[in-house]
Amino acid sequence: MRIYIDSANIKDIEKVMNILPVDGVTTNPSLLAREKTNPMEQLKAIRGMLCKGQELHAQVISSLAEDMIIEAQHMREVLGEDIFIKVPVTPEGIKAMKKLSALGVNITATAIYTPMQAVIAAKAGAKWTAPYVNRLDMIGADGVQVAISIHNMLTRMPASSELLAASFKNVEQILKLAEAGAGAVTVAPDLLEQLLYHPLTDKAVWDFTADFESITAKGSTMREL
Ligand code: E4P
């Protein structure tokens, strides 16, 4: 399963990247607004932090298809042709996806709340489809189940689109998608840290170190032997 950092904060992205094996960064206009900087400059800075193979996803703001296409082309000029352009699954968004995919633009369909929206986006040429798991839970739906349903349908479709599940609030939601073989998740930095953390792991390491030092010296490692 591919894992993306869902953030536009340089420090948070850096902190996660230093530890976890991640496949890129996804942003949205709200995340960029939180940084209170020029959004394009912020995206350029994030872009500069990525290694080969790591993806940057950034969203168009325009509401009409023709404007989305022009905006997407400008973003590619500034941020690089390998950027993933996030396009919402509105009727105008689907129109834009059809044209952009024909031009070879990488598309992430976003703001997905139903499996059918994902199927249509996949047919329109989106490489990734992003349902909002926790936002679905918040309205009484089963976000994980919607994401699994999308994953199952996409794997049976000829279009080469995959699930990139978004909007998580707990580890359990991500675990269930990993178990279902989901293609990718994008997760906020604080929750990404939780994916690795367990207090008993820390205790086990502490106990091993104390036992080792009991027969050597405080602070010693294998290097001193
Ligand atoms: C995905 O495209 C969205 O940017 C994001 O994951 C939504 O997450 P939130 O529901 O925590 O805002």
Explain what the structure shows.
The protein is α/β, with parallel strands linked by helices. The protein has a single domain, classed as TIM Barrel. The chain contains 11 helices and 8 strands. The chain has helices at residues 10-19, 29-35, 39-49, 65-79, 91-102, 115-123, 133-138, 143-156, 171-179, 189-196, 199-215, and strands spanning 2-6, 24-26, 55-59, 84-88, 106-112, 128-131, 162-165, 184-187. An 8-stranded parallel β-barrel has the order 1-2-3-4-5-6-7-8, surrounded by 7 helices. Strand 4 (84-88), helix 5 and strand 5 (106-112) form a beta-alpha-beta unit. Helix 8 packs parallel to helix 9 (171-179). It is globular. 39% of the residues are buried. The mean pLDDT is 97.
Terminal-residue CA separation: 40 Å
From the 3D coordinates, which CATH architecture would you assign? Alpha-Beta Barrel
User: Can you tell me the CATH class?
Assistant: Alpha Beta
Proportion of residues in β-strands: 15-25%
* Small molecules bound: erythose-4-phosphate
Number of strands: 8
CATH superfamily: Aldolase class I
Helical content stands at 40-55%
In spatial order, strands of the major sheet run 1-2-3-4-5-6-7-8
Poorly predicted tracts of residues? none
- N-to-C series of helices and strands: EHEHHEHEHEHEHHEHEHH
Largest sheet at a glance?
8 strands, parallel, barrel
Q: What is the CA-based Rg, rounded?
A: 20 Å
Number of domains: 1
